[in-house]
Records
---
Amino acid sequence: EKGNHRHFMEKEIHEQPEVIGRTVSHYVDAFENGVHEIAGLDFRSASRLIIVGCGTAAYAGEISRYWFGSLARLAVEVDIASEFRYRDPVFLPGDIALFISQSGETADTLEAMRLAASAGVQTLALVNTAHSTIAREASLVVPTLAGPEIGVASTKAFTCQLSALACLAVLAGRHRGHLDRAQEAGHVASLLASPGLMVKALEREDEIEQLAHEIAGHETVLYLGRNQNFPLALEAALKLKEISYIHAEGYAAGELKHGPIALIEEGLPVIVIAPHDALFDKTRSSIQQVASRGAHVIAITDPEGAHALEGEAARIITLPKGGQLTDPLLFASAVQLLAYHVAVYKGTDVDQPRNLAKSVTVE
Ligand code: F6R
């Protein structure tokens, strides 16, 4: 039931603080500020983590690559299932393969998992639907606890995937000796704080709705991000495309000069995910480059970033200060709201966008 909400998507966006909290609680011990061991999962001798999914699930995997790399020094290869399964992928001794799927029924993801299993690789399934085919066939299930997701555009399943992946990256970091107790406790504390921060992020909805009205008439929108916010920019563009039918593209900010900057013209909306992190100055210089060519820059940032970007970005959405593992959760909620309000304003069918099905059981 939609309750007070106009659409399931709106309801599911607002459920996120609760369901990411539930998902994090499943993986962590809040008293010890540590991540639980998972029977049958050992990252110590892993040589590589292969992550496979489709669409939004694959983007969650892409974001987590940055975490497994920096927290656990674990090499990660991420692929979309339809490419992975047909490219005769190379499996190496010590590979672990993780398949991400909300529905647990996506045909390409399932076949990719069967391929890895037949090569003798341990298969983990990060799924939201416990009784699904992917869950049943995997050697180990790591759940997301988002509850049923009805809106075709994935929202809460995505942020629950990110929450679970963050916990797995912390576990891998401990297993591989790259996180000490204090560092692990710091990461866990920040994950436990993420629901509260997301409540604050969602309070920006009225401002985001105003911005949505500004961009609803445009034919193209660009999203830029760096580091872990690059795949988030891809996800943001996918969300806008799916439900508002506006052509949107995500780019790594550092790629601008290698092509996409040619697209910049007067008034083009460019949405930049710009937390005040170690790469802020680089993102800021991308903002300056596109703004000086006439782009209408909308920066999504934190209080420190907002201060620094005053006068440089045409619009600034200020979210609470997050961290490495929590920023993508907060930025996700903002870009979901933006896509949602553009679609509502345009009058498209938000929960049932044209040509799309919730579960893609044929390739
Ligand atoms: C995007 C979206 C799709 C799914 C993709 C994978 O909003 O919903 O891109 O993420 O079809 O679906 P699952 O996760 O069910 O395997």
---
Amino acid sequence: MIKVSASIMCGNSMKYGEELRRLEEANVDLIHFDMMDGSFVPNIAMGLYLLEAMKKNTNIPFDVHLAAWEPSRYYEEIAGYGVEYLSIHAEAVKHLHRDIQKINSLGMGAGVVLNPATNANVLEYIIEDIKMVTVMTVDPGFAGQKFIPSQLKKIQEVKKMAEKYNKDLLISVDGNINANTIPNCVANGANVLVAGTSSIFKGDDADYKKLVEIMKESV
Ligand code: DX5
Ligand code: ZN
């Protein structure tokens, strides 16, 4: 079952309430909420207050992508908002196993994000403890970038590990995901599609429901 996770960072920042209504009508499965610290990634995006407000404003489950150094500073706060999935970067922590246990203990589904140059084998000793892996198909920080084809091989490697150790693992792809890039991502094992500027968020008059259908039809 393919899930669409709408990257709300790509929405109209002056109309987030309206964007959430449109995404509800479009039946997206998840809200992908990009939090960026301006240091681990070169952009600053979407802080705690906005996460709290948005979480109160919709029933769509949240897939938080925390692109920040020392992410453990925020786990309790984010869990307190009722966030369903919290994904941290393997490259941003010294003790990935401890961080994953902490996120799980707070009742959230723990996820690991892998940057384009990071090998899938970092998952080897924690793949059974996580609910989601996000394979970055662009360098994290900005929307509107080009898909990195080398990541298709990594998706396949993650899928092989999931088949052996974690059959229910959500395998998400994040960055320039659209009707052209979706077929190969899904064929290699992706089952969560992060929808940004190249798929759903095409402006105030875009038909989100239709665009989500196109994504799901292109698998
Ligand atoms: C980039 C973010 C992505 C991005 C997706 O760092 O993680 O979620 O917003 O946007 P597109 O689909 O335009 O690449
Ligand atoms: Zn993201």
